[in-house]
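Bug report (template v2)

What were you trying to do?
Predict the complex of my protein with guanosine-5'-triphosphate.

What happened?
Run completed; filing so the output is reviewed.

Input:
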Amino acid sequence: MCDTCGCNITKGNQHLLTGDGKLSRVHEGTTAVSVLRGLLSENDHQAAHNREHFDRRGILAINLMSSPGSGKTALLEASIDALGDRYGIAVIEGDLETENDAERIRARGVRAVQIATGTACHLDAHMVHDAVHDLDLDGIDLVFIENVGNLVCPASFDLGQHRNVTLLSVTEGDDKPAKYPVMFRAADAVVLSKIDLLPVMDDFEPSRAERCLRDLASRAPVLRVAARKQADLGSWLTWLENEIASHRKRLEAGQTIRPAIQPDGMRLHSGG
Ligand SMILES: Nc1nc2c(ncn2[C@@H]2O[C@H](COP(=O)(O)OP(=O)(O)OP(=O)(O)O)[C@@H](O)[C@H]2O)c(=O)[nH]1
Ligand SMILES: [Zn+2]
Ligand SMILES: [Zn+2]
Ligand SMILES: [Zn+2]
């Protein structure tokens, strides 16, 4: 069904395709693409419901996306240390296997739910909904969703978040935005991570990475951090605090916001 990586059917949405599931009665002549459209539309419906969960409680939800190992969990640990006494923070962790990341977050005294996706290379809104119901959201201001490390598929699935943040570590090469445009177009902010390694990764030019991003017509701010060293967190923390404040204002005005989900993902996922 998915020519790219076979990731469309997940533990979260397979109930729609089996038994009495909404999409289980595949009519004669129904193509894989129309089943896929059904799945994506169910995903969007679920995502809107997830966003209502967050909005009703005044919570800002942020989806972190990047390659495996670019420093998402380290950024969360540093952010919790810096902001945990001023904001209620909870984390939804997505990985193929293990509770490792959730355990790292819980060790910081913060609520965390782990989603083990099994084979799926992205989180979907159904999986996040289960996690939301497992989390006690009382007193929470900020929910981080750490997506599965993958620079392609996570950009195509709305989870109910308000903002997307894409990390690019300096060990990955400064041309990543040019090579993975779908992911970088989805970013409301780009975090340049592990900048403490810039002296050794001397062929990584932050200005070149930013130029690749601007070539995609992105106006996302580029925020430099060295999370493991708890250094250079200023611009990231300021961005976060501004986002929390502007989300509260939006909610007071009866509004919400949906990040830039990339419809090109539909094409990628149907192989068309
Ligand atoms: N030098 C340096 N290393 C870092 C930094 N942030 C993370 N690392 C290291 O990079 C590796 C991966 O970091 P994680 O935070 O686990 O990365 P992740 O993106 O959460 O990884 P996955 O969840 O597996 O995709 C670990 O060895 C970290 O110690 C940083 O700011 N500087
Ligand atoms: Zn995929
Ligand atoms: Zn992680
Ligand atoms: Zn619900």
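What did the reviewer find?
The chain has a mean pLDDT of 92. Residues 4-5, 7, 121-122, 153 surround zinc ion (ligand 2) (CB under 6 Å).
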